[in-house]
Amino acid sequence: DATTPCHFDEQENFFCQVRGKKRVRLFPPSDFSCLCPFPYAHPCDRQAMVNPDNPDLKTFPMFKYSRPFEAILDAGDVMYLPSLWWHHFHNIDHLATSITFWSVPAPADLNKAANHEISDALMVSVRRNVERLVFQQAGSKHEPQFREMLGMLRDPPTPTRSLVYQMLLHVMSPEKAEQTIKELVQYRYGQDISFYTNPNVVDH
Questions:
Q1: CA-to-CA distance for 148 and 130, rounded, in angstroms?
Q2: Alpha-carbon distance 120 to 28, whole Å?
Q3: What are the E-state strand segments in 61-117?
Q4: How far apart are CA 174 and CA 109, in angstroms?
Q5: How far apart are CA 113 and CA 20, in angstroms?
Q6: Is 196:39 a contact under the CB 8 Å cutoff?
Q7: pLDDT for res 115
Q8: pLDDT tens digits for range 8-63
Q9: Nearest to 202 by CA among 41, 5, 9, 40
Q10: The whole model's pTM is what?
């Protein structure tokens, strides 16, 4: 039966089940560190490295702290899927069919961010922007990019880590900035490089 890899989208979505039954698991944006998305700009960007149906808790131990919601969609059901929420679909019936209607979400309220009131959903965008910045600093090759990311968890702080930390302080507390850097790197960039390039390693 068909399964959609666990991932998030950057648009709002009305998910309409037209034919048959489909199981859905939803994970809130705050489960970022539990689901360990593939690195920014990877072909599987915005997809979880964790397989929710068969999680490898040795490689991704934080998954046990995830907080999924699960439901069965039947023909005629419509589900609102907020942007940046993780979702994992599995067809229960053969040829179960659905239609999605997308819309662009309203711009984030940056005044709240300036007052350190960042929502879990906005934090997803913050992490992606940080990751993009680090990749741009490291050049176009994957191995230097990964080394630069891993370097943000080591002492003494690298210039890139110092830059990222100072940028984050504009929108969050020092404690939150430290936590954000750790969550961005830990369990995501410590794998052997073949883990990210061999499609048979991660079975969605």
A1: 12
A2: 8
A3: 69-73, 78-81, 86-91, 97-103
A4: 21
A5: 43
A6: yes
A7: 59
A8: 999 999 999 999 999 999 999 999 999 999 988 888 899 999 999 999 999 999 99
A9: 5
A10: 0.86
Q: How many alpha carbons lie under 13 Å from residue 65 in its C-beta half-sphere?
A: 9
- Reduced to 3 states (helix: H, G, I; strand: E, B; else coil), residue 136 is helix
Q: Which two tokens mark 20?
A: 């048959």
With H, G, I as helix, E, B as strand and everything else as coil, classify residue 86: strand
Instruction: Reply yes or no on whether the pLDDT at 197 is more than 80.
Output: no
Q: Is the dihedral of CA 108, 111, 114, 120 positive or negative?
A: negative
C-alpha dihedral (85, 86, 91, 97), degrees to nearest 10: 40
DSSP conformation class of 10: S
62 backbone dihedrals φ, ψ, rounded to 5°: -70, -15
Two tokens, residue 31: 């489960």
Report the length, in residues, of the chain: 204
